[in-house]
Amino acid sequence: MQNVSENSLDLINQGCALMAQQQYEQALAKFLLAQKDSPKYIDCYVNLGNVYSCLEKYDDALENFKKALMLDEKSSTVLFDIGNIMYLKGDKIEAVKYYNKADECGNLTADMYDVIAGLFIDEQDYVQALRYINRAIKLDPMNGEYYLEKAKIFIDQQKATEALETLHELNKLMPDAYEAYDMLSEIYTIKKDYDNAIGIVEKGLDRFPEDVNLAYLKLKVLTSFEKDQDALDYTFFLKESGAYYKRETDFALLEADVYLRGKNVEKAIECLEGAAKGDYSNQQLGFVLSTIYLKSEQFDKVIYIAEKMLASESELFYAASAKFYLAQAKSFRGDDDAEKVLREITKEFRRITIMNPSFYEGYVYRLLAHKALKEFDEALNLAEYMKNLFPDRPDGYVFKYTIYKDMNDLEKAEQEKREALNIDPSFVF
Questions:
Q1: pTM metric for this prediction
Q2: How crowded is residue 248: how many other Cβ atoms within 10 Å of its Cβ?
Q3: To 5 degrees, how large is the angle CA 391–CA 127–CA 118?
Q4: H helix or E strand, kind and range, residue 160
Q5: Potential cystine with 264: which of 37, 259, 337, 343 (Cβ 3.0-4.6 Å)?
Q6: How many angstroms separate the CA atoms of 96 and 112, rounded?
Q7: How far apart are CA 373 and CA 406, in angstroms?
Q8: Distant-in-sequence, close-in-space partners of 8: CB < 8 Å, separation ≥ 6
Q9: What is the 3-class SS of the chain, one letter each residue?
């Protein structure tokens, strides 16, 4: 403490309070005054580094953290902070070097180990990620987030057994943690293990019978395993108890899935429209209703919902879907501007896929728009591109099959159908 004045400590406290309120420029002014007053006090430079980092002035942050390191070269906190700046600057190799130095100096917290694990997760180095997340758990064994992170690492490695063990450990340690029930039921569903999927949810409901989120998980499991009558019976129970209306949109989407599987389109529409109440700003709800109305040739409703969706802020997938459905509905309805809208789709979706090359639906909608315009060469080129992009999926062959059928080239259509079935024999045309 001999290197710091009382005035500097007061200025640092004021700066930290301003940082907590996200008033970074004002905090910076306080820390600069403190540093000027006590130039040999390490906390002045640490706080300057932190505030510059919040202001995204990473070079200034690094300069101050290195000055702090000159005052204490064994400070694990400062070494860790420098690692973070290197990570933010995109120099992951240097970040790891500083993290390792910080680890060697000891005194890292569980949160610090969690951050280091996150870096290795980003790099898909799961051995190192597990090493550090296990250290976080050892230091803070009651933090459920670390167990969830560990389970996700195992899931990324497709190690379902280890993920299940971790989640059951969390469930035993913290039976109130909803996320454990959620992830456990999801993994068991993927493994097609109905008894364990429904069992873990029922375990949660036995403990928390009024929990609407666990009720949603139960209905999700029932619909995923196509236990349709059980799902409808449970839906009736949820409506009677009032729980249904606490997450009405989510429950309605699952209920509608059951009705659609049973080809009861009217009931599906009824429950979805009941949840929408004329407001289609919920993107998934609007998308499902648009899909149903398009298939049932209720084009006016498709256009109405698509325009409502486009008027609200939508994720890329839903915005793209709304634009395409709008174009298709106009085309099927015979609107004068239908062709113009379809051509705009081909141009816009080309731009979208250039900017977002992994946006799969963009290629699909471009292809379908070209197909609707009878621009078959363009559509075939896109289908071929999709075959090369996703060689393990039958999609490109299926699209070529539909295009050749539209072209009345049945021989080539059958050839593409055979190729699709070679990849996925269960695909239904």
A1: 0.78
A2: 19
A3: 85
A4: helix 160-173
A5: 259
A6: 13
A7: 11
A8: 34, 35, 37, 38, 41, 44
A9: CCCCCHHHHHHHHHHHHHHHCCCHHHHHHHHHHHHHHCCCCHHHHHHHHHHHHHCCCHHHHHHHHHHHHHHCCCCHHHHHHHHHHHHHCCCHHHHHHHHHHHHHHCCCCHHHHHHHHHHHHHCCCHHHHHHHHHHHHHHCCCCHHHHHHHHHHHHHCCCHHHHHHHHHHHHHHCCCCHHHHHHHHHHHHHCCCHHHHHHHHHHHHHHCCCCHHHHHHHHHHHHHCCCHHHHHHHHHHHHHHCHHHHCHHHHHHHHHHHHHHCCCHHHHHHHHHHHHCCCCCCHHHHHHHHHHHHHCCCHHHHHHHHHHHHHCCCCHHHHHHHHHHHHHHHHHHCCCCHHHHHHHHHHHHHHHHHHCCCCHHHHHHHHHHHHHCCCHHHHHHHHHHHHHHCCCCCHHHHHHHHHHHHCCCHHHHHHHHHHHHHHCCCCCC
What would the two tokens of residue 270 be?
A: 């009824």
Structure tokens at 225: 């395993």
